[in-house]
């Protein structure tokens, strides 16, 4: 039996069926499998990440809870501190009120003390003004007395300029007291040595000479002395206070030394010795023992 060339054989039929399944379906299934695998991996990865984030969130929540508890504890402590501070502030306010009251009392006391002091100062000032006025009056009178005394002194000086000493020699100005002597010293006409001598067995030095007080008569203002100068002994007997007692010493060039006694007391005389300016230091004679 012959077979027609247009009728396929069984082998050809099998080959045809096998060649009839499209290749793209296989590719599609492959892509689908890959996609499913990728989705699975992505899902696993996302699940793991979500699990980790959840764990971290739980840890963070635990930490925040701990911090919240600590904050609540601190808040409670602060609240108690605030309450104690409020109590202390209340006590301080009371103390401040007491201090203000005390300060006001002190201020009033100070005002009263100031007023009292001002009254006292006014009284003292009034008294001082009265005393100053009285003193001014006294000073005015004293000035007048001084002026009168100065006038009298000038007149006395003018009168004494013509006074002669016990040797008949004209004397210069005579001092009657210490103040007059100081005035003579300022004038500088002669050398002046003030003395205060007591009666003694031995002579006492006065400037360049030595003087021994032999006796005194205070009632009559008379005295007797012995002068030791220039190897000589000169006795001046029964002289009167205020009288220039004169004697010559070698080197005085004709100008006498003078002794003037201010005051005659009991066994004592006070006065001064005057010597010429150009007179050298005259050697004093060795004093002899005073006569009993």
Query: Strand-residue fraction?
Result: 15-25%
**How far apart are the first and last residues' alpha carbons, in Å?**
222 Å
Number of helices: 3
User: How would you write the strand order of the largest sheet?
Assistant: 1-8-7-6
Residue-averaged pLDDT: 78
Biggest sheet character: 4 strands, antiparallel
Describe the structure.
This protein is of the alpha+beta class and 292 residues long. It has 2 domains: 24-160; 178-275. It contains 3 helices and 8 strands, in the order H-H-H-E-E-E-E-E-E-E-E. It is rod-shaped, with a radius of gyration of 70 Å. It starts with 9 loop residues before the first helix and ends in a 17-residue tail after the last strand. The relative contact order is 0.07. Mean pLDDT is 78; it is low at 1-5 and 13-18.
Tags for this entry?
alpha+beta, 4-stranded antiparallel beta sheet, 3 helices, rod-shaped, 292 residues
SSE order and pairing:
Elements: H1 10-19, H2 23-160, H3 178-187, E1 191-198, E2 204-206, E3 209-217, E4 222-229, E5 232-240, E6 245-247, E7 257-265, E8 268-275
Antiparallel strand pairs: 1-8, 2-3, 3-4, 4-5, 6-7, 7-8
């Amino acid at each position: 039996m012959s077979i027609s060339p247009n009728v396929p054989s069984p082998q050809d039929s099998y080959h045809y069926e096998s060649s009839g399944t499209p290749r793209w379906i296989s590719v599609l299934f492959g892509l689908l499998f890959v996609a499913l695998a990728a989705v699975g991996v992505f899902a696993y990865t996302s699940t793991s990440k979500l699990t980790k984030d959840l764990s971290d969130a739980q840890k963070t929540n635990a930490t925040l809870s701990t911090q919240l508890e600590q904050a609540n504890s601190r808040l409670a402590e602060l609240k108690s501190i605030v309450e104690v501070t409020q109590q202390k502030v209340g006590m301080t306010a009371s103390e401040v009120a007491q201090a203000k009251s005390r300060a006001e009392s002190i201020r009033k006391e100070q005002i009263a003390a100031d007023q009292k002091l001002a009254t006292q100062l006014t009284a003292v000032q009034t008294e001082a003004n009265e005393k100053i006025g009285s003193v001014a009056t006294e000073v005015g009178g004293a000035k007048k007395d001084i002026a009168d005394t100065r006038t009298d002194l000038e007149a006395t000086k003018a009168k004494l300029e013509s006074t002669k000493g016990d040797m008949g020699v004209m004397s210069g100005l005579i001092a009657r007291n210490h103040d007059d002597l100081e005035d003579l010293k300022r004038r500088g006409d002669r050398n002046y040595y003030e003395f205060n001598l007591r009666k003694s067995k031995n002579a006492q030095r006065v400037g360049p000479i030595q003087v021994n007080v032999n006796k005194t008569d205070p009632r009559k203002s008379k005295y007797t002395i012995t002068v030791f100068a220039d190897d000589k002994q000169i006795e001046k007997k029964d002289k009167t206070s205020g009288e220039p007692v004169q004697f010559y010493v070698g080197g005085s060039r004709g100008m006498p030394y003078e002794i003037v006694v201010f005051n005659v007391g009991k066994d004592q005389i006070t006065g001064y010795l005057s010597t010429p300016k150009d007179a050298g230091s005259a050697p004093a004679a060795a004093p002899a023992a005073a006569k009993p």
